[in-house]
């Protein structure tokens, strides 16, 4: 038996897949349901098919490095490459999982601590997104005009105008919308979990609020009026017990995946460049920064933890700040 800090780790034939499944079950009450779903999905998609049959006590850092190289080369869709960012995310999950294994003593050493991680491409920030896609202002206007009267159109327009996440939009209640004060409060997040959907807190864990633009304000006023009419006209029981802003006609909440599929169908029908529903958030941030909105304000509206994160993700879309600074200074001082 192996000795570890005065105690012993008994030999064990447990497989990696069995340990990881047990670990996920043990984390169920400690993680947000959406985080748990993400961990389970990724482990079963990328890790367990490749190293799940290995014995836990025999798993080494070298074996994990081989796993990461395989993922980089052929771990993506249809056997294509997987991004460095995604591979490093798998590593972060395994580091947590095997760290708990050391604490609980099935193993002596965390193999994930002995790995040399794949490097980000030269000049690439560790948090910069390579998959940020955004529409131009003209494309946004084309979409808004083209989806008028379509199912969930207000949901998508508000996503483009505010940068709210899908779950934040689907969790939005009328009590969060101050039509008189022209402000919106982000207090909820409706996410997909294994057994349906769950209403929780925003991703950052913090609430936020901001002013509404005139287009969004008018959109919400019209939607409020129409939803009240639908409630009165609906022959059966109205299903909107949570007073949600965005629902089906009978008041039933919108499933996150259904909102995504409907958005994709509308985009395809208009012949616009294909973007994901989440890219409405990127579109808002990109256009706001290009319009000269302060990165601090954009960061606060998006609910980012820091302005630095916002700049790392979207800094490439900012105007040439150095040249602009020189011109503004000259204009202010010398006219």
Automatic annotation (TrEMBL):
Keywords: DNA recombination, DNA-binding. It comes from Euzebya pacifica. It comes from the Bacteria. GO terms for biological process: DNA integration; DNA recombination. The keyword DNA-binding applies. Pfam families: Phage_integrase (PF00589). Residues 14-102 form the Core-binding (CB) domain. InterPro entries: CB, DNA_brk_join_enz, Integrase-like_cat_sf, Integrase_catalytic, Integrase_recombinase_N, Tyrosine_recombinase_XerCD. This is Integrase. CDD domains: INT_ICEBs1_C_like. GO terms for molecular function: DNA binding. The lineage of its organism: Bacteria, Bacillati, Actinomycetota, Nitriliruptoria, Euzebyales. Residues 130-329 form the Tyr recombinase domain.
């Amino acid at each position: 038996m192996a000795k570890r800090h005065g105690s012993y780790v008994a030999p064990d034939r447990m497989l990696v897949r069995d340990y990881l499944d047990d670990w996920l079950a043990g984390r169920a009450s400690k993680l947000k349901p959406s985080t748990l779903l993400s961990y389970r999905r990724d482990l079963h998609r990328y890790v367990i098919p490749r190293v799940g049959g290995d014995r836990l006590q025999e798993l080494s850092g070298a074996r994990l490095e081989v796993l990461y190289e395989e993922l980089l080369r052929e771990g993506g869709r249809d056997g294509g490459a997987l991004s460095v960012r995604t591979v490093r995310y798998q590593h972060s999950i395994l580091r947590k999982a095997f760290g708990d294994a050391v604490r609980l003593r099935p193993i002596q050493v965390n193999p994930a601590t002995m790995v040399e991680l794949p490097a980000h491409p030269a000049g690439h920030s560790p948090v910069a997104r390579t998959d940020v896609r955004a529409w131009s202002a003209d494309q946004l206007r084309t979409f808004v005009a083209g989806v008028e009267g379509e199912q969930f159109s207000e949901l998508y327009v508000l996503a483009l105008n505010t940068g709210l996440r899908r779950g934040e939009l689907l969790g939005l209640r009328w009590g969060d919308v101050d039509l008189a004060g022209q402000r919106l409060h982000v207090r909820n997040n409706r996410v997909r979990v294994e057994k349906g959907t769950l209403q929780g807190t925003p991703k950052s864990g913090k609430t936020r609020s901001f002013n509404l633009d005139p287009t969004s304000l008018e959109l919400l006023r019209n939607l409020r009026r129409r939803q009240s009419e639908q409630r009165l006209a609906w022959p059966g029981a109205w299903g909107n017990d949570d007073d949600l802003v965005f629902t089906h006609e009978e008041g039933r909440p919108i499933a996150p995946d259904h909102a995504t599929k409907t958005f994709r169908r509308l985009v395809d029908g208009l012949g616009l460049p294909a973007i994901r529903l989440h890219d409405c958030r990127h579109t808002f941030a990109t256009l706001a920064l290009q319009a000269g909105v302060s990165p601090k304000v954009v960061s606060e509206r998006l609910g980012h933890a820091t302005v630095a994160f916002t700049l790392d993700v979207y800094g490439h879309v900012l105007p040439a700040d150095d040249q602009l600074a020189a011109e503004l200074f000259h204009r202010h001082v010398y006219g």
